[in-house]
Each structure stands twice: as structure tokens, then as C-alpha cells.
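Hi support team,

I'm filing this because I wasn't sure whether my run with copper (II) ion finished correctly. The job status page said complete, but I'd like someone to confirm that the output block is well-formed before I use it downstream. Pasting the exact inputs I used:
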Amino acid sequence: MNPGKTLALALTIVAASTASTAFAAGSKDGHNMHGMDSQAPAASKHASQPVPAEIRKIDASAGKVTLKHGPIENLGMSAMTMAFPVKDRASLKNFKEGDAVAVTFDTVDGKPTVIDMQRK
Ligand SMILES: [Cu+2]
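And here is everything the job wrote out:
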């Protein structure tokens, strides 16, 4: 065996373990910073925009409205016609079938829900 090569190998192992110790200490701080960074996008993602829609059916007693709606970005839903529960069901008396409206949606009790509706 070549003694010089063995020594070089031993030095490499020492250098590698020293480097990995330094990396472990450094990455601990780096992880904490990453945790702070990751909260900002999650908060801004929640912003809800009014969505254009047309009222197809109103069921005031059930507190539901059937809407032909455009894409709902904050719910990740594409354009379609479907029934939604309405948070302020008393407001349904102000609307009639065929009305063009701007609707704000949010998830309430795990369900897509109309939280605000304005006639256009
Ligand atoms: Cu839908």
C-alpha cells in the first residue's frame, strides 16, 4: 500500500467531517429563515376577488342560489353552473332569476359559499 495515499485519504475524511459539521450548524439557521419566508405567500393567496355570474335559480327557504359563474380563483374552480349556500340568506330577496351579479366566494365549513353578491 502507498503510505502517502493513505494519509491523503485520512485527511480527506477529516476535512469532510469538519465541513459537514459546519454545514449542519449553518443549515439550522437557514431553516429558521426559510420558515419565516414561507408564511408570506400563504397569506396573500387567500385574497378573494368578485366573480361575474348570472343568477339561474334562487331557493330563499334553503338559503341557496344557483349561479352560472366565471372562474373562481380563490377556490380554484373553473367556470360552471352550480348551487351555492349563501352566507346572508336574507339578502336573496333583493335578487331575481336572470340578474347579472358580481359574487365574492369563500370556503365556509368546508363548502364553497357566497359571502357577498352585488347586482351589476
Ligand atoms: Cu362551480
